[in-house]
């Protein structure tokens, strides 16, 4: 072990000893305090102390209210406590204070009414508030924000409940449809079985229906006739419309053509680019005409 480690270990032991000593001192002081509370007596006054009882009473008489002073100057109400109250019981103590304040308020209200004196605050009196308007505005905005948050959370909860309920209803509908389909298939199988037992064959004049596959039925057995358009309801027996008999259509075709792209009609091709036989046509200055100066 090095010297530094020995020094650190010694310091730790000293700190532990000091903590134990402080704990023991605290315990001894607490024990001595409890003993002093029980056995301690008031100290006797010193020899130089002055106890002038007559002077104290004289000063008390000077600062005390006169006996014939009106009640409106003192506004004091004395409430007699009928029974003793345990001050260590919080509920009983607070209830006694409440009852005392209620009785005193009731008596004071009755005395003011008997004297016919104005003691209520007038309607046009605005006292200075403890909290400023700015502070109360902040409190109001915070309360409104909390109320809004609560409403939004309530709406989200309702939306979740509605969504869950919709899923349950949808699953219930799916189950009902599956059950109905199964019942229909069972009824068809039962009908076929009854026909076989009664001597009828399924292939005599009765089409074969595949209820179990769940596919939709098609007209004509799903077969397409060659040369018949899908929209032709006559089955190919009707006369096709001839374009040659329509004179109006023939006239328009001869006049306007058959349509098609005409945007590239004036575009050069490889043949027109290499064709120099046509030559170039002269402009306005061609011939014997002279330009006027």
TrEMBL record:
It comes from the Eukaryota. Residues 148-167, 173-189, 247-256 have a biased composition (Basic and acidic residues). This is Probable rRNA-processing protein EBP2 homolog. Residues 1-45, 148-293 are annotated as: Disordered. Its main location: nucleus. Residues 1-37 have a biased composition (Acidic residues). InterPro entries: Ebp2 (IPR008610). Keywords: Coiled coil, Nucleus, Ribosome biogenesis. The keyword Nucleus applies. Residues 265-275 have a biased composition (Polar residues). It is found in: Nucleus, Nucleolus. Coiled coil: none annotated. Belongs to the EBP2 family.
């Amino acid at each position: 072990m090095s010297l530094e480690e020995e020094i650190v270990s010694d310091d730790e032991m000293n700190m532990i000893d000091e903590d134990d000593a402080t704990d023991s001192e605290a315990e001894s002081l607490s024990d001595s305090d409890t003993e002093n509370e029980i056995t301690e007596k008031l100290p006797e006054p010193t020899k130089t102390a002055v106890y002038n009882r007559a002077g104290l009473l004289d000063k008390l008489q000077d600062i005390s209210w006169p006996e014939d002073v009106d009640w409106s100057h003192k506004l004091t109400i004395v409430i007699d406590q009928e029974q003793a109250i345990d001050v260590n019981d919080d509920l009983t103590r607070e209830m006694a204070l409440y009852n005392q304040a209620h009785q005193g308020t009731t008596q004071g209200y009755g005395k003011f009414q008997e004297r016919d004196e104005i003691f209520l605050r007038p309607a046009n009196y605005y006292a200075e508030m403890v909290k400023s308007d700015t502070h109360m505005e902040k409190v109001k905005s915070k309360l409104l924000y909390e109320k809004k948050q609560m409403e939004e959370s309530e709406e989200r909860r309702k939306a979740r409940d509605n969504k869950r309920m919709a899923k349950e209803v949808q699953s219930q509908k799916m189950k009902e449809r599956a059950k109905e389909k199964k019942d229909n298939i069972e009824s068809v199988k039962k009908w076929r079985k009854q026909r076989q037992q009664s001597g009828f064959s399924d292939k005599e004049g009765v089409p074969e229906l595949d209820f179990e596959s769940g596919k939709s039925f098609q007209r004509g057995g799903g077969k397409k006739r060659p040369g018949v358009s899908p929209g032709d309801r006559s089955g190919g027996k009707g006369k096709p419309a001839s374009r040659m008999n329509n004179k109006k259509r023939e006239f328009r075709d001869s006049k306007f053509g058959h349509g098609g792209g005409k945007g590239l009609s004036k575009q050069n091709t490889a043949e027109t680019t290499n064709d120099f036989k046509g030559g170039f046509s002269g402009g306005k200055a061609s011939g014997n005409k002279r330009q006027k100066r």
